[in-house]
Amino acid sequence: MVKKQPPPIFTDAPISASSFDALARLPVAQRLLELVMIASELPLVIALVGAAGDGKSSVLQMAGELCATRGDLRAFAIDAWAAGDAAKVGEVFLREVSQIFEEERVVGKMDKARDRLIELGDYVSAVVRFAGVKVDVKGALEKSPDQLRTEVLKLTEAIGKRIVVFVDHLDRLAPADGVAVLKLIARWGAFPYFAFVLGIDRDQMVRNLRRIDGDADDLDRHVAVELPMPPVDRAELAGWIRGGMNDLAAALGCDPTGALTLFDVETGVGLSFVQTLRQAKRLLNALSAALPLAGATVDLRAACLIEMVRVFTPDAFPIVIDRLPLAIDDAGRARLAAELAPIAARHRRPDAAKALFTSLTPA
Questions:
Q1: What are phi and psi of 8, to 5 degrees?
Q2: Are 37 and 54 found together in one domain?
Q3: Residue range of the domain that includes 145
Q4: Is residue 4 a part of any domain in this protein?
């Protein structure tokens, strides 16, 4: 007897290497590397901007992987959210920069390098001073002292390599912490050979700045280049979802055909709502969690539609659940359509919502 496989569960963690690039995002990472190396001696701050779930972390991971293959630069990454606060980000930054200076033999010991940098720039105390305090953003983002600039310039010129710092999830920090890290980036982002690549949800970052008397200008003054995440290729996303649906159907022992049509590249109603890999994973994970409870008969198409209603048109979910099972006659179909029509009309994407509701009860 063949042991039945459990339904698949998909992690939302960023990919660990470009070999797992299911949505062809590698060109974005390659473009980031091209941008930071156009004039490697000049200071530069780049923002990779996109909404949550757009795949920024995966792109930064691949860009870091590309950096590791080159001998003409040094790179390291900081996850601001994982670090926890601005002081911890500052500590990680100083440790990594000091280690680069030591490994490139421009200073004798890492501790000596870190002590010099702290003494000259007073970074740790600066981070602590601004974190958790209501501050004026424009006043906080002052330029670095000339003495520090001169010292860092000597060190970076001695190395002669671009130093690339990837900072992810800056927008997830508490607003005051985000400003303190932006202050650090503003200082070091003005030094030759340093390039910062920030992965941010721009709208969220601006909202954070406004909470402490800042605005979008405070971001614009220090970010020289914004590279927006391109939309996910529809065909690549459809292929990934359909593959996941096939795996799920195999585990459940059901027919995937109806569900697969929902994610047809040309006509699939599901692709009107599921537009990122994160959304696709959440859909499949919800189905994988719930459908083993459905018993022997599983209608994967109906389950997909009901889950999309729950997530993307939540006002309609109680109505749909109350009408289960949805195999109804013409009169019942008309009553359901009449109840759902006002919800579709006020949805931010009324045509897509109407198509989703229509798919619930095909003639």
A1: -70, 150
A2: yes
A3: 24-228
A4: no
Which of 180, 210, 228 is the C-terminal boundary of a domain? 228
Q: Which of 350, 337, 252 is nearest to 301 (CA)?
A: 252
Q: Using CB atoms within 10 Å of the CB of residue 278, give its burial: 0 to 12 exposed, 13 to 18 middle, 19+ buried.
A: middle
User: How many Cβ atoms sit within 10 Å of the Cβ of residue 51?
Assistant: 14
Q: Which of 206, 228, 250 is the last residue of a domain?
A: 228
H or E stretch at 312:
helix 300-312
Kindly give the interhelix angle for 26-36 and 56-68, rounded to the nearest 10 degrees.
Answer: 60
Q: What is the pLDDT of residues 203-244, one digit of tens each?
A: 999 898 888 766 777 788 889 999 999 988 899 999 999 999
Q: Residues 54, 60, 65, 67: is their CA dihedral positive or negative?
A: positive
For residue 11, being part of any structural domain is answered with no
**Conformational region of residue 132, where left means phi above 0, alpha means psi within -120 to 50, and beta covers everything else:** left
**Lookup result for tokens 């997830």:** 172
Pairing of β 162-168 and β 225-228: unpaired
- CB 200 within 8 Å of CB 172: no
Residues 197 and 260 in one domain: no
Closest CA to 29 of 233, 237, 227, 278: 227
- In single-letter form, the type of residue at position 300 comes to L
* pTM, rounded to two decimals: 0.78
